[in-house]
Specification:
The complex is a heterodimer of chains A (171) and B (281). Helix content of chain A is 67%, strand content 0%. With 171 residues, chain A is mainly α. In chain A, α1 runs parallel beside α3 and α5 packs antiparallel against α6. In chain B, 36% of the residues lie in helices and 30% in strands. Chain B is built from six helices and twelve strands. Chain B has a six-stranded antiparallel beta barrel. A six-stranded antiparallel beta barrel of chain B has the order 6-7-8-11-10-9. Classes of the chains: A mainly alpha (171), B alpha+beta (281). Chains A and B meet through α3, α4 and α5 of A and α2 and α3 of B.
Chain lengths: 171, 281
């Protein structure tokens, strides 16, 4: 478990938490929308690896953000939830059979599939985040509105990353 | 045995997820754990250090505006100083000189700089660039020229974390100027420009534009600081009290400088209050 890849992932998580807290939290648009860019880790983690380890890493990532944002555990919960639904979602979007999923790589995705994959992931993450923060159905309209704003903002950053840096990962 | 083990193995991932989410909810709802205090200190230290660096780079951008605000505050203070001077001269002629510093001053103020702030969450926190080394303790009040900023929640050596007034858990005792009826100022988590004044009975006449100021009963925030003006009021159907919408004077999104309040007689007040609790008839 404690191999080079694991340590690399830990460093990556540390880096993501750092830029999330000190860069992207301050990039808020008119104090309404904040991009939560750290979920790129969950979106782009390779499939076919140990899922228990993946859940643990997501837990660490969310917890790191929580500690610095003083939010208790809401990021943690949102992160592990989308980490859990990731594999079924990939299977659904890519249309692969059960035994083919082990060979799956993200470079197989075309543009439409990328959108179909990232949109629900980001939306569910943000919705859980704001819903647990307010923890009531009273201002559900406000929660949904903030979810949509923040999701759009996050998606802009996610697609920028994909377009700029993801090309060289061709098979 | 296989009957029990097979479903557990098959659903192992989901069970692991349940375990982790329970931990997450524990994080959300727990309050007083020793490790949290330790973690708080470390995270305040780290984020304080980096936020200080960022604030150092960015505070040049609104230097002009800050200067103007400081000038205004200076002018205001000078005006009050002149007023006090004349009053003091008057009382001197009546009673002779009183040379007790504490007679004039029970509060002292420590200027601090806000290095991290947020306004759009429901529970907002502020980081300032001074801490326990400068004598800041948990529970102290923090004010600015335009109102109450918040309360100190935790401190590290050089930084402190405040609960902002724009936090659903924050309570500030305030009164209506002139009328002297006191109530509690809370924030509903919606609009950072407005706060809500509760517990004012409905037979009190409140009109739009009335000044709301602090009443100084809490002992951590001096009285007479203007917090905002009344923007509207309506009677709450459930409690039968007035719900007053208060337009805050402080623009929290542009908050840069604040002052931590030291009450020099805090110890004395606490001793008196403690004794009165113990000595019940």
């Amino acid at each position: 478990m404690l191999n080079l890849r694991f340590i690399y992932n830990l460093i990556l998580i540390g880096f993501l938490v750092f830029i999330q807290i000190f860069l992207f939290d301050k990039l808020s648009f008119k104090q309404i929308a904040v991009p939560y860019v750290y979920i790129l880790f969950i979106l782009l983690y390779p499939t076919g690896r140990n899922r228990f380890l993946f859940l643990t890493l997501c837990f660490l990532l969310g917890w790191g953000v929580d500690v610095f944002e003083n939010t208790g555990g809401i990021h943690t919960f949102s992160c592990i939830t989308i980490a859990l639904i990731r594999k079924p979602l990939i299977r659904m979007v890519s249309g692969l059979k059960f035994f083919e999923i082990e060979d799956f790589r993200f470079s197989d995705f075309n543009a439409m599939q990328w959108i179909m994959y990232t949109l629900p992931m980001v939306f569910i993450h943000h919705f859980l985040l704001f819903f647990i923060e307010s923890f009531s159905f009273v201002n559900i309209d406000k929660v949904l509105l903030r979810t949509i704003y923040c999701s759009l903002f996050t998606l802009i950053f996610v697609y920028s990353y994909l377009i700029l840096f993801r090309k060289r990962a061709e098979r | 045995m296989q009957f029990i083990l097979k479903p557990i193995i098959r659903n192992g991932l989901f069970l692991f997820y349940i375990l982790l989410s329970l931990t997450a909810f524990l994080f959300i709802f727990r309050n007083k754990v020793y490790h949290k205090a330790l973690l708080d200190k470390t995270s305040t230290q780290i984020s304080g250090f980096v936020d200080q660096k960022i604030a150092y780079l960015t505070h040049y951008t609104n230097l002009k505006e800050n200067n103007r605000e400081l000038q205004n505050a200076n002018a205001q203070l000078r005006k009050e100083l002149e007023k006090l001077k004349s009053e003091r001269a008057e009382s001197d002629t009546l009673r002779g000189a009183v040379s007790n510093l504490e007679f004039y001053q029970t509060y002292s103020f420590l200027p601090v700089e806000v290095i991290n702030n947020s306004v759009m969450k429901e529970h907002n926190y502020i980081t300032i660039n001074k801490g326990s080394r400068q004598g800041i303790k948990k529970g102290m009040g923090v004010i600015s020229a335009n109102g109450v900023v918040g309360y100190v929640l935790k401190t590290s050596e050089n930084y402190s974390r405040l609960m902002s007034s724009l936090n659903k858990d924050a309570r500030v005792t305030v009164q209506i100027r002139g009328d002297k009826h006191f109530g509690t100022l809370v924030w509903d988590g919606k609009d950072p420009r407005y706060a809500q004044l509760m517990e004012i009975p409905k037979y009190i006449e409140v009109s739009k534009g009335d000044t709301i100021e602090t009443d100084g009963k809490s002992g951590v925030i001096p009285g007479g600081i203007m917090v905002g003006t009344v923007a509207g009021s309506k009677i709450n159907d459930i409690t039968g009290e007035l719900d007053i919408q208060v337009k805050l004077k402080e623009d929290f999104a542009r908050l840069r400088y604040a002052q931590v309040v030291f009450n020099l007689q805090r110890k004395e007040i606490m001793e008196v209050e403690k004794d009165s609790v113990n000595a019940q008839p």
